[in-house]
């Protein structure tokens, strides 16, 4: 089943891959941030397994924002760039979910492309969630580098528990 164009606080729901349904009254929700990187795919795998174990559904979020401009650009160019970034986010989610969940996922999955700074968008998406799952990004020997700025911000500010997954791609150097 695919749903299109449902606006929700600046978030646009772009699609849903189902086994069961994410909207069947099941309030147990796991939010996971996915940007197409290996750490984010590892987080998605973990979230899908956890959802299967707990009976939750997975809310997969890709956040994007227009990069800061050095000068003033014509509004049409900004609009075109925004559209391209949103489409790239949709493609990233589709490819990541297909790679991780394969054909039919073991838990209901909804994908959403969100406009805004990733940390803020993930925290908003996680309001009322049971869990927020993120991949590691850092490569250093201290906590800020191990988590990455988005993960670190979410760990410090989320209203729900946060899991930061650490796969082989997150080893210290």
Automatic annotation (TrEMBL):
Residues 28-166 form the UspA domain. InterPro entries: Rossmann-like_a/b/a_fold, Universal_stress_UspA, UspA. PANTHER family: ADENINE NUCLEOTIDE ALPHA HYDROLASES-LIKE SUPERFAMILY PROTEIN. Belongs to the universal stress protein A family. This is Universal stress protein. It comes from Planosporangium mesophilum.
């Amino acid at each position: 089943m695919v749903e299109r164009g449902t606006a929700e606080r600046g978030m646009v729901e772009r699609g849903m891959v189902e086994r069961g349904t994410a909207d069947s009254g099941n309030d147990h929700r796991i939010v996971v941030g996915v940007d197409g990187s290996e750490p984010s795919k590892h987080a998605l795998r973990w979230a899908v397994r956890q959802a299967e174990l707990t009976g939750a559904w997975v809310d997969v979020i890709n956040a994007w924002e227009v990069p800061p401009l050095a000068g003033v650009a014509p509004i049409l160019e900004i609009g075109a760039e925004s559209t391209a970034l949103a489409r790239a986010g949709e493609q990233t989610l589709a490819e990541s979910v297909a790679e991780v969940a394969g054909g039919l996922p073991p838990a209901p999955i909804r994908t959403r492309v969100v406009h805004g700074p990733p940390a803020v968008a993930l925290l908003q998406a996680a309001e009322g969630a049971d869990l927020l799952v993120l991949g590691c990004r850092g490569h250093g020997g201290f906590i800020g580098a191990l988590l990455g700025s988005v993960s670190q911000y979410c760990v410090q500010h989320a209203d729900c528990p946060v899991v930061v997954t650490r796969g082989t791609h997150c080893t210290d150097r």
